[in-house]
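[#protein-structures] MJ: dropping LysR family transcriptional regulator here for a structure pass
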Amino acid sequence: MNMPLLDNDVLRSFVAIAEHGTFTSAAKAVHRTPSALSMQIKQLERNLGKTLFVREPRRVTLTAEGEVLLDYGRRLLRLNEEAVQYFVSPTLEGKVGIGTSDDVGTRILPEVLAEFARSYPAVLVDVVVGSSKQNLARLDAGELDMTLVTVADEGRIPRGEVVHEEPLVWAGREGSSAYQRSPLPIAMAHEGCAWRRMTLRTLDKAGIPYRIAYTCEHCSGQEAAMLADLAVAPFPQSLIRPPLKEVVGDTLPQIGFYQLALVRRGSNPLNDALASHVKEAFQGLR
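AK: finished. structure tokens for LysR family transcriptional regulator:
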């Protein structure tokens, strides 16, 4: 029995539709017409014998089978790009420095660095962990080539390119009682943290009394305060893992969304290559 082959152009269209939510927006991203994308997806569904999208009036959403194919599709496209780069890309050598906070460093960068090393084994990547403010200062001083920074100020145009957005939610230990105390005990980073400004502004607006019970620059320190049930903390939804959980209470206001932006000092083949890998990694989280 001959198995159907997955065409990279079709997979690229499929991933674009899944990420943009509409055929029209996806068509602009891949430079095709919506009708051409529709024909590609219909043929793909016939080849696989599965329905991949639920068509709604204003958008499309993935079925369970579509979610599975999305993961395969992203990996196949990355592997295809990696194989092509190996043979046709110019050999890159040198050193590139990237700044990041500890949460992004532990969650995203291992995958990024592994793939980048396979594509460009002669390049040394220097990772500097610090706050957004510290890393922006290093970038402006010429010590870094790029850095990931947290953006939380409403209406503020960030430096760089936004590569990720997600909710900032309340987190605490499973079975926590900290969120029921008054004033509300919270664990925060130090002054200058965008999450801190965003959270305190939300609490002040809601008129909720609070006290900063624990401060630490790193997420691991804030996690320790939550695990001891000393406080709750604002945390990215994707970072919450057992025994921590998202805390939802009638008195806790929604904090809102925060963004991560990639700020670069300049453009050259080496920096462009690493920036491309970073942006692809965040696209895989959506």
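MJ: nice. Residues 64-88 form the longest helix (25 residues).
AK: one more thing. The radius of gyration is 22 Å.
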